[in-house]
Amino acid sequence: MSAPDVPLDASRDPHDGALARMNATRPLDWSIRRELWENRSLTIAPLAVAGFVLFVLAMTTFGLPRKVRALSTMDPARQHLVAASPFSIAPSMIMMTTILVGLFYSLDALYGERRDRSILFWKSLPVSDRTTVLSKAAIPLVVLPLIGLALSFAAQVSVLLWGSFILMASRVSPATWYSHLHLFQMPLALVYGVFVFALWHAPIYAWLLLVSGWARRTPLLWAVLPFAVIAAVERAAFNTTHIASLLRYRFMGAMTAAFDIPPGTAGQHGTVVDRVSQLDPVKFLRTPGLWLGLLLAAAFLAAAVRLRRYREPM
Amino acid sequence: MPAIEARGLRKSYGKTVALNGIDLHVEEGRILGIVGPNGAGKSTALHAILGLTAYEGELKVLGRDPWTERDQLMRDVSFITDVAVMPRWMRVSQALQYLAGVHPRFDRVKAEGFLKKTDIKPASRVKELSKGMVTQLHLALVMAVDARLLVLDEPTLGLDILFRKRFYDSLLNDYFDHSRTVIVTTHQIDEIQDVLTDFVFVNRGRIVLESSMEAFESRYLEVMVRPERVDEARALLPIHERPVFGRTILLFDHADRERLAALGDVRTPTIADLFVAVMGRDAGEAGGAA
């Protein structure tokens, strides 16, 4: 991510044969940075959601002492769920936000620069179409996951500190609470989850980027319409829903493909992923859907790079 | 190596022919003006040279194929197009930072020096600037790039005459150094006549006339004659005539200065005068005027 786009050799200057002063450049780094400058919602939206969720959690934490006192009366699966769920609410909301932001970002990334004609400015600079497209793909695939990760981690630390404070203020020992938590495995599960989802959703982002570079108007329509039409035709002609389930698999499949959550262990109110034993990277890496998706993503991005050469302002 | 070598450059949008076989040879160290009416193909030709649009025919810019090597080419080329294309959300300081980060030949100190002479504040966003200020900003960025080829497509649109004058002075005195090549299009031809070393007239996708300034000055003459001598002057086959205050100005190609002097005041025409003459004839014949 930080490798210079083109190796620079300041001693060989084709201009006048002399030693010319040349900046060392990092086009990819700077292109990613400029995406963050332009799309401030990339950081603001997850931050706002994190703030809101933490506020709500802070309010509900006042019930924590009562819950912790009652833990011993519950069955073990429910005990864990009650103790750990405050830690999973904020990250899951933040992750959902980053995914949503990533989808909308991708849909506009190569469309906006044509709409406002700034593509002519970007193309006047020695930044290749490949670097440009990769920098835009890096936002949903790398940058947003990292933002989500940092915010989720901060949220979990806040929940831990605030919860402990409330418990101590109510003269309940936080140790009882801690004994039902996997404090050191939680961050690992978080890191794993974030990148599993990014990899699994990669073809979606890449498809949206491609459409955003191709569509002359309403990229959202062009991104969704083909699938809607095919699914409708399939249903009408064969009365099957393979396309629809394929799409559902692409959006939701990461949960079953990358995690080991036997249906029986989940409590009535769902489950909390916070243990290393729930992560199954081997199964994930052996899922054909992962590699097929990545292959498709690479093809879409390659097409988007090629397409950008032909693109002019609208 | 020539800065630009084009042969049989063609481009059409559907049935509209934008470039209809352009041959252009520009040596390094020239300042070429491209003159033509709206829709003549000037911008399309420049876009082809800059790798912004596909074309048929042969084209080499600084020895590179602009269509397939745009990003490499842009290390040595800097350009400004006819419309505001600076991203509206960007801050001036961000533009400087970004260019310094991606452009090996961008001199940030130089750009800041240019900007100090304007009212543009580093913290301003492009959308907060006036039209003229955006152009000033873009020019400051472009001029701070140590480029071998500078392409200016209507660079001074929306700027007042003082700034235009200062811009062309600084282009000539601070920027141009005979190892660089400059291509400029503008509707205010008279303002750049003294700046140019060469010019071409473009009409309907073709080059209808190309000349160096020296050749132009020795080849074309204008004479202002009284009404009673107009027929005498017409006998010498002027390429154009226009009435001015009861007299007639006739424009001659390859005429004998002595003979014209006998008819009235002789002077070198402006490029604009020649442009009007050539375009009028081109519209009439639709043939080559060069």
Summarize the structure.
The complex is a heterodimer of chains A (314) and B (290). Chain A is mainly alpha-helical and 314 residues long.
Report on the structure:
- The complex is a heterodimer of chains A (314) and B (290).
- Chain A has 314 residues and is an all-alpha fold.
- Chain A contains 13 helices and no strands.
- In chain A, helix 8 (186-214) packs across helix 9.
- Chain B has 11 helices and 13 strands.
- Chain B has a 6-stranded mixed sheet with strand order 5-6-7-3-8-9, with helices on both faces.
- The longest helix of chain B has 15 residues, at 161-175.
- The chains are: A mainly alpha (314), B alpha/beta (290).
Question: Could you name the key traits of this structure?
Answer:
heterodimer; A: 314 residues; mainly alpha; disordered N terminus; B: 290 residues; alpha/beta; six-stranded mixed beta sheet; 11 helices; 28% strand; disordered C terminus
Mean pLDDT of chain A: 86
SSE series of chain A = HHHHHHHHHHHHH
Radius of gyration of chain A: 24 Å
Span from first to last CA of chain B?
A: 26 Å
CA-CA gap between termini of chain A: 31 Å
Structural class of chain B: alpha/beta
Write out the strand line-up for the largest beta sheet of chain B, numbering strands in chain order. 5-6-7-3-8-9
Helix content of chain A: over 70%
Q: How would a textbook summarize the main sheet of chain A?
A: none
**Counted beta strands of chain B:** 13
Number of strands of chain A: 0
Oligomer: heterodimer
Structural classification of chain A: mainly alpha
Give a topology summary.
The complex is a heterodimer of chains A (314) and B (290).
Chain A: H1 27-38, H2 41-60, H3 64-70, H4 76-115, H5 119-122, H6 129-169, H7 174-178, H8 186-214, H9 219-238, H10 242-252, H11 254-258, H12 281-285, H13 288-310
Helix pairs in contact in A: 1-6, 2-4, 2-6, 4-6, 4-8, 6-8, 6-13, 8-9, 8-13
Chain B: E1 4-13, E2 16-26, E3 31-35, H1 42-49, E4 56-61, H2 70-73, E5 77-80, H3 92-102, H4 108-116, H5 131-143, E6 149-153, H6 161-175, E7 181-185, H7 189-192, E8 198-203, E9 206-212, H8 213-219, E10 220-225, H9 230-234, E11 240-244, E12 247-253, H10 257-261, E13 265-267, H11 271-285
Parallel strand pairs in B: 3-7, 3-8, 5-6, 6-7
Antiparallel strand pairs in B: 1-2, 1-4, 8-9, 10-12, 10-13, 11-12
Helix pairs in contact in B: 4-5
